[in-house]
Amino acid sequence: MIQETLDLRALDPPEPLLRILEMVRGDTRGPYVFLLAREPRPLYPLLAAAGWRHALRIDDRGFEVTVFRDPRIA
User: Which H or E run contains 43?
Assistant: First the structure.
């Protein structure tokens, strides 16, 4: 499944983290792809606690974080 990338690079912290959490809260679909200016390390344990996993890719655009449901919990 191809997902559109949501570009959050122009936002100052903690706005990208808050936007990501808002999107996944109560959702069971996913995956979501986010483009960020910084690696969102505080986000990872919050996602895991809510039953989500992530994959990180770093390139010249920034940090691309793909967020998807943890299949062990779904």
Answer: helix 43-49
Tokens of 46: 């919050």
Residue 25 DSSP class: T
**Reported pTM:** 0.88
Residue 35: which of 72, 4, 1 has the closest Cα? 4
Averaged in consecutive runs of 10 residues, what is the pLDDT profile of the chain (74 residues)? 84 96 84 96 94 95 93 69
* 39-44: Cβ within 8 A, 24+ apart: 39/63, 40/16, 40/65, 42/14, 42/17, 43/17
